[in-house]
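Exercise: predict the structure of this protein bound to glutamine.
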Amino acid sequence: LTGFLVSGNRLYMVEFTQLAAAYSKVNLGQGFPDFAPPKFVQEAFCHALNEGPMMHQYTRAFGHVPLVKSLAKFFSRVIGHEIDPLEDILVTVGAYQALFSAFQALINEGDEVIIVEPFFDCYQPMVKMAGGQPVYIPLRPVSDGSVLSSGDWVLSPEELASKFTPRTKALVINTPNNPLGKVYKTEELQMIADLCIKHDVLVISDEVYEWLTYDGAKHVKIASLPGMWERTITIGSGGKTFSATGWKVGWAISSGHIIKHMKTIHQNTVYHCATPAQEAVARGFEREYEVFGTPESYFQQLPAMLHHKKNKLASLLKSVGLKPIMPEGGYFMTADFSSINCDDPSSKDEAKDFRFVKWLIKEKGLATIPVSAFYSPEHGKEFDKYIRFCFVKEEATLDAAAEILKKWS
Ligand code: PMP
Ligand code: GLN
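Solution:
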């Protein structure tokens, strides 16, 4: 049998997660917290399980009503647009399924989709599965050698403008970005928005790390810019929001005329996401609505905790000669390993960063992810001197990573 649309794709996250399970003592690879979600959402989940028989049954296909209501209430305030809970929101099985439903519903055979690199690795196969053609544009460091922060990685407005054609249907951005941690500034988003309005293009904005920003960086929703609500699908994740990635509750928020097409995909594939998990996320947002902007808010507490972990990891990496790029957001840090001279001679046909990551897992027991996995094959080679570390980890995990790195240096 031949002709499968995505049969040639490698599933990097799956491959490296398997390697990590087999060899690593310390896993700073896949992005998930190794600590518990906050008490208030754990209690909300337990409460939901004991709330009566209906909490164990099907709920509304497009989103449990308490959840869409709490999301609408919360995000209307953030976006500055009155969100209709029943028309403008689709609850999905994680942000993954929101992305999948968006591509399936909105991309037709031959449509072009502009993807900003580095990108979360499922965008490319999802675009292809929908029959679309990915068109890539890399963020580039402003000047090589002195790159200190993810903010130094930028899009060239001229290069971006050159990617639009009459076939361009959508553009995908991810802010804060996985893996770089870039948080797009308003001016950068405005430049993207202007081009999308000019060419009548949709924006799929993956904002799963929206609450995680550091050192004064501010997350801005592209949907909140003038003229963008009607053409933006904003994607979020309960798993990332409340440190409960296994719950797999995600959502897409957009104008009802866009969401209705995604609903068709959703109701004919997945139907709905687990009821008690939706109830727990709803209660989490209700609570956050009340304490928003105060030190009690988890959306302040989690970034404050991660700020310390980020700095700890950065000093650690520097102490062994790696050159970290300080993330402005998210829970990953990329680092340049070119000054380190270690290699796995068995696999010279693979990219440098893939070889380095395999060596680090197998020989040192430390799992990370190669950054060229977040690039198209045509651009991966330019960026194969970086690896990604996840820092949403217990102090003990980071200390164990420190032990490995100290022994190695
Ligand atoms: N987008 C990005 C940028 C991610 O890093 C991830 C990984 N969690 C997802 C989407 C998927 O999120 P979820 O676990 O809610 O499906
Ligand atoms: N988003 C997480 C990461 O980038 C996990 C996703 C996955 O394992 N597929 O590591």
